[in-house]
Every structure is written in C-alpha cells, then in structure tokens.
Amino acid sequence: MKNPFPLLLLLVAGMPALSQVKENLEVVNKSTVIKGSFEGAAYSKSDRLPFREIIVFDKRYDTSKTGYMPVSAKNYSRVEINQSWSSLLNSYFKKNLDSQSNKSLVIFIKSFWLQAGPPSQLVKSKVSKESGFAIGNPFSNERGTLMGSCSAALDMFVQTDSTLQALFKLDTCFLNMSRYKKNKLDDIFFLPFDSLARKLQSTLIPEVVAKRKKLSWTEVHNYYNNRFSLPILSNTQINKGVFHRFEDFRLNNPSSAQFSFKNGKLTDELYIVSGGQEQLITEYWGFFDGKDLYIQAGMSAFKAVRQNNTFEFYGSNQVSTYFSSTRTSIMQRPGDISFLSSGMVKTIFQVNMDTGKVY
Known about the structure:
Blueprint: H1 5-13, H2 25-29, E1 32-36, E2 53-58, E3 68-72, E4 75-81, H3 85-92, E5 103-116, E6 127-131, E7 148-160, E8 163-176, H4 186-189, H5 191-201, H6 205-210, H7 217-225, H8 231-234, E9 241-243, H9 246-250, E10 259-263, E11 268-274, E12 277-281, E13 286-288, E14 293-297, E15 300-307, E16 310-315, E17 319-324, E18 338-343, E19 347-350
Parallel strand pairs: 1-4, 2-5, 6-17
Antiparallel strand pairs: 3-4, 5-7, 7-8, 9-13, 10-11, 11-12, 13-14, 14-15, 15-16, 16-19, 17-18
C-alpha cells in the first residue's frame, strides 16, 4: 500500500472505546518547582533604549508560574522566577537603558508561557505522521534534543510624568532549537524581550506616542483587571453541559445539557442527546459532566483543573502515528509503507482565557 494515511484516519476515528485514564491530573497537582534566577543574563546587543527604567505589571490569569519543564516521564516542574518582573528586566537591559531619559517603558504582561516542544499555534494537524526510525517525539529536533518554546502577549506603554500612552503590542510565539533545561532557560525565556528591544529600535517612538491618547494609571489598570470579571471565574459552580464555543465557557453558559461521552485510547466521542437520539459532534470547546471539566484537544478531551484564574490539563493535541518504509514481509514491495503504531506525546497545557486556545 503506497499511501495508508487516509485509511489510518479511518482506523483512528473508529477505534473502540478502550478504557484508559487520560486525565492524569496528578501530573499537574504533583509538579515540583524550578526557580529561574537568570543571574548574569543580559541583552546581547549594545543598542540604547530611550527609557530611564522598565516597569512591569503581571496581568496574566495565572501569575504563579511561567510554564512547565518535563523532568522525566509524567514528572514536571513549574518554572517560576525568583524576583519581580521589573527587577528582572531592568537587570537584563541594564547597559541599554538611558538614565538621563524622562520616560519609562511600561509593560503589561497578558500571557507568558514556556513549554516543551513547538508552540501549539504551530500544530496544524490532529494526526502527525512520523517515520518509525525517527525519534518520533514532536518535542525533539532531528538530533533528539528536547526543544522549548515561549508564547507571550505583551502590551507596551510610554510613561511621561503621570500619564501613559500606548506604544505597541507583541503577541507571538518563539521556538528555541537548543536544549530546554534549567541551566538553559535564559535562551528561551528572554526571546520575547529581545524581540521587543528590536521592535523599539525600528519604531519612531516620538511620532507614535504623539498620536496616542494620554491615559491615567487607573484607566489602564481597570482595563486589564476587568478581563478577570468572567462568570466562569466568579461563579462557584460550573453549569453542566457542552460548551460548543469558548465564549460559552467564559459565560458559564453551556449550549447543550444532555450529552454522552465515550472515552477511547486515542480518540474520544461526544454525543448530543436529543429526543432519545445521539448525534456525534466533533467540534466543541469542552464540557462539564456535573463533576469534572473536560477540555478538547486534538481528537480527545482531557480532565482539567483550575489554576488561579485559568485551567490546566495533561494531554495532547495530536495523535502521533509511526510508519516504516522498510520491507518487513515478502508480501511487500520496495517503497511500501508499513503502519507500526499510534500514540500520544503528552504535556501540560494551560488555557489562554482571552482566546480559549491552549498553550
């Protein structure tokens, strides 16, 4: 068979509901801590930044960590910083700041997330096709080295006297091909801020600021704090039912109350029940069964746990399928492809409560 991939999709979709505990919330709950000190870390370029200091406000939905790092199979450590964001960035850009400037750069962090493997934004297919003789781990590069990525959403303002003026936004993801480990954290942690510094160099700051409205500190803080005023975060109980859209979840307003969930080894099936009939749905955000919240990722749904003002789960957004192009029987012709196995490479995901996407 020259091209078994469409057939594989049918096989995966039709797999029986084999019992498998896929939620594995203990992986999240039992995670340990890695403290990133970043001692001696400094911006590599000598470009002058036209600001006296950098002031940072952490407006993330979860301010307790910056991501997770795998330690071993099913063992993860939370990555935390051991100083304030302002202290960290002023130290990092110490040689670049202008002590004579009358302006400060103010950064509001909306999201910041480190993880093993490529950013979720780059994962386009729910089924990945791998060579049976490759590493077979999407978290590794071609040399078997564990990669890391960083996703960040930062809003920049210029402070002059007692007012703020919007400068620009940075909302993107970065992939680092070097090893993702504790003593290499700065290689990936500072990528968004390096990008920010380069953006500042190419921006005509006085011209941009001249066109922006002057805002008070209270106005700006209220804007970011109001993001946390969501029914799903303020209500003590999640309503039972299926959340077809993320906005349904934010509003704690499930679209369908009656449903049936069938848990499989690699794929799950969710059915809406109406008039005694079951209708399979494949596109939904998540559901609450009256006891636990499940969030869809890839071709499965995984039990989630609240972490401060967001939610996390241990799961996968892809089913990995492994093939071999080597002849393994006399019935095969040269060049034929053999299906070897399927599986999931799991990690800890966190929900971006602004967009509903998972990191």
